Each structure stands twice: as structure tokens, then as C-alpha cells.
Amino acid sequence: MKKSRILIIFVLVIGLATAAFAGGGKEPSPEAAGKPFAGQKITCLYFSATYAEAAKEYAAEFTEKTGCEVEIVDFPYITLYEKMGLALSTGDSTYDVVTPACQWDGEFEPFMEDLGPYIERDNFDTSDFMEGLWQQSGKWAGKIMGFPFSNTPQTLAYRTDLIDEFPEDWDEFFGVCEEIHDPPSLYAIAIPGVKEQLSGLWMMVQWSLGGAWADEDWNLKIDSPETREALEITKRWFEYADPAAPAWGLPESDAAFLNGNAGIAFSWPTLTIAPNGDNPEKSKVVDKWAIAPIPYAKNGVTVLSSWDIGIPKAAKNKDAAWEWIKFYTSAEKQLKNYVDYSILPSRESVWEMPEVKNSKLYPHKKASEQGAIIWWRIPAGTMAETTIRDAVANYVTGQWNLERAVQFMEAGLAKVLEEYPPAPGVKNTGR
After folding, report:
1. What confidence tier does 33 reach under pLDDT thresholds 50, 70, 90?
2. What is the C-alpha separation between 109 and 140, in angstroms, rounded?
3. Mean per-residue pLDDT over the chain, rounded
4. Which of 23, 163, 180, 213 is found 20 to 30 A from 6 (Cα to Cα)?
């Protein structure tokens, strides 16, 4: 009897060992280990800039946490618009995540997943996202098509060794230009004169003066004193700029400032000046620069550059894509984006963190609070911006007089609204 019990126990032990050897002793499955997306892959489409660089850095961490592989695909601005538009409009399932510029929202929204159900399902707290920004970048016609992950109002960089306090209005601004302008060693202004940037600079002046392209019901208001004054101010800038400036882009303008050849830079300071301004190997103005909002004029409204992140309706791995969105837009990652890549946060809490609040880029918060908006976000918005761009460029270079430029704007905007009218009920939330 004793021997029988021993034999039974021996058989049971051998059986358990065999089962373990056969697979019962394997490591827990990825799902059991907290990696519910193991074996999946998402492809994310980004603008070829700091946003994509940050995403590439974070991809391995996301894979470690979730088991999902991440591929980041990026293209330059113009190419990105074409690639994203084609993929979305044709139902191409290549991309699980896309990042539209906010001015494309109205055009791309029909092809984007509504994130509302995901937010509700996960009880995801959205209260930290800046509501005014979110209305301009990621929300469209009552739908949440994405989350804003950047918040860059147009600002200026200036030399603190030349300018004690940045001027508050345009009259004071030109007075400062007179004081510091000493060509050819020092020009008061570094400015990107190519049309793609100059039109945006003109917009911030027109809007800050209280001007608008149209009212909220799309009735045109472009033929106005504010439009004319903004054109005159923009043209006057070039009196204090390098003669080569009309042919410059952002790289040339930023280089002039960093090389110490300009006192004020009309720029997006987060792109080049902030990352390099205090690096002695790349800058001759180390510890001699700061950021300021544009001269206030009537309301201080400036141009917004923001990107939002969402999921195409045709995406294959929507749950994994949603997990990436939460990960990439988290407060933790937004702080790292700011510190390592000068990407300005879309979360209120991140703006108030010491690393942000005590930094040189914090004046962007004031510019954002004064008002940062984008032009029309309807499908006709890109064509409308082209009309504005052509009129401004031809006026400041002396090809057209003031009235011809304004008439061209009026006729061009009327045409695009007629050919591509906004959907019923859609209001103009820009200018």
C-alpha cells in the first residue's frame, strides 16, 4: 500500500514536469504580461520636423510597454499635405495614425474617426487640453477628430543686448528699428521673404489690427482699412532688412539672426533659434536673445501653428493607434517634447511646470492667451491662403499697388467660397 502511494505520487510529479517541459512552464503570454497589442504594428504619418523626431525616439518605449511595433513615416510640409490627402480620400489603410495641420481639419474630417467614443470608453481625462487651442486644432463641426499636440503662436525673437524691452505697438517697433539699424553689419530685421512665410506674417498684422477675411457667416471683410494698413506695415519691414531678404526662407532668416546680423527675427523661434541660440558652436548671440509676442496693436491676435493627431476611418489597428495617441500626447511626453525638441505644449499643466515656466520660450503662453488662430479650416482654406499669399508678395515687391492687391484678395476669396462653399452650419472660427 505504501509502495502504491509512492508510485502514484511519482507518476503525478513526472506528469507535471512533462507538462511544464511541453509548454506549461513558458513565460506568460504577451497579453498576460500587460502587452495587449503584441504582434500588431501601427504606421504613423508625421510632418518632417521635431514632431516626427520625437515620435521616432518614443517608438521603442511604446513597443516595450504595449508590444505594438511603431513605424514613423514623415514628409515635408507640401508633400505631407498631398500624401495625407490622397491616403485619406481614397480609403488607403496604410496609416493608422495621421497628424493634420490644423488648417486641414475641415478638409480631412470626413475621413477621420470620431475619438469621442474612445474617450468615453476609457474615461480619458481631456480637461487638461487648452480648450481654445483644441477648438482650432482637432475639433470640427462637433466632432473630435484629433488632439492638439503642439501649440505655437507666431512670435518674434530679438536681441536683448540691443533692445531693453520689446515694443508694444507698431509705431514703437519702427522707432526701435531706426535706432538699431546699421547696415551692412547689422540689419534691424531678419525676415523670410518667400511667399509661403510672408503671407502668414501679414495675417498676424491684419488680425492684430482687428481685421478679418470674413465674419463668422463667411461674409467677406477683406476690403478694409485694416487690410491696407497691414500691407503697408509689411512692406515697410523690408526697409530695415537685408536686400536679399525677399528671396529668403526661414533657414536664411534664422541664420542671419543667429550670426548676429539682425536685431529682430520674424520667425517661428521654436524651430531653429531656440534649439541653437545658446549653443556657441551654432550661435553668436548666446545669452543675448529672448522671445516676445508681436506688437499688440488692437487685440494681439497672431497666427497659430498647431498639429493634431487622430485615426483615419480606414486604419487597420485603431485600438493600438488610440493607445499611441494617449501615449504621445501625455503630459510626460509633452514635457519631454518641450525640453528636448522645443515643441510647445497643448496641456495647461505642462505650461506651468518649472522647466517650461522658467524658460525662454514661456512668452509663447502670453501670445497664446492674447489669441492665436489659423485661417479658414474649410476645404477651400488652402486655396484662400494661396490667394492671400500672392497678393501680399506682389504688393511688397512692388509688382502691384495697394488697391490691386486688395481687389485681388476680394475677388479670389469670393471665387473660392463660391466654388467650394462651407458646409451648412459651419461657422468661420478663424478670421
Report:
1. low
2. 7
3. 89
4. 23
Cα(267)–Cα(369) distance, integer angstroms: 19
Which residues in 219-250 are b (16+ Cβ under 10 Å) and which e?
Answer: ebebebebbbbbbebbbebbebbbeebbebeb
Task: Give me the CATH code for the 41-148+307-345 domain, please.
Answer: 3.40.190.10
**Considering only CA atoms, which of 151, 160, 173 is closest in space to residue 291?**
160
Query: Exposed/middle/buried for 296, CB within 10 Å: 0-12, 13-18, 19+?
Result: middle
Domains 41-148+307-345 and 154-304+373-419 share a fold: yes
To 10 degrees, what angle do helices 225-237 and 402-419 make? 120
> What's the pLDDT score for residue 13?
35
* Contact status, residue 129 vs residue 326, Cβ threshold 8 Å: no
Nine-digit cell string for 94: 496604410
Q: What is the dihedral of CA 266, 271, 275, 281, to 10 degrees?
A: -70
**From the CB of residue 127, how many other CB atoms can be counted at a distance below 10 Å?**
8
Angle, CA of 17, 18 and 19, to the nearest 5°:
90
| Cβ–Cβ < 8 Å for 122, 291 | no
Distance of CA 115 to the CA centre of its chain: 19
Cell readout for 375 is 485661417
One DSSP character per residue, 323-356 reads: HHHHHHTSHHHHHHHHHHH-PPPSBHHHHTSHHH
Is beta strand 262-267 parallel, antiparallel or unpaired with respect to 155-159?
Answer: antiparallel
- Contact between 302 and 367 (Cβ < 8 Å): yes
Domain range summary for the chain, segments of one domain joined by +: 41-148+307-345, 154-304+373-419
pTM above 0.85, yes or no: no
pLDDT 10s digits, 36-83: 899 999 999 999 888 999 999 999 999 999 999 999 999 988 799 999
Distance (Å, whole) CA 342 – CA 365: 13
Element (H, E) at 160: none
Q: Nearest CA to 280 among 259, 251, 256?
A: 259
The answer to whether the beta carbons of residues 190 and 257 sit under 8 Å apart is yes
Q: Give bridge partners of residue 308 from the DSSP assignment.
A: 148
- Taking Cα atoms as reference points, which of 149, 428, 154, 104 lies closest to residue 306? 149
Place of cell 507698431: 170
HSE-CB of 38 using CA atoms within 13 angstroms: 11
Q: What is the CATH number of domain 154-304+373-419?
A: 3.40.190.10
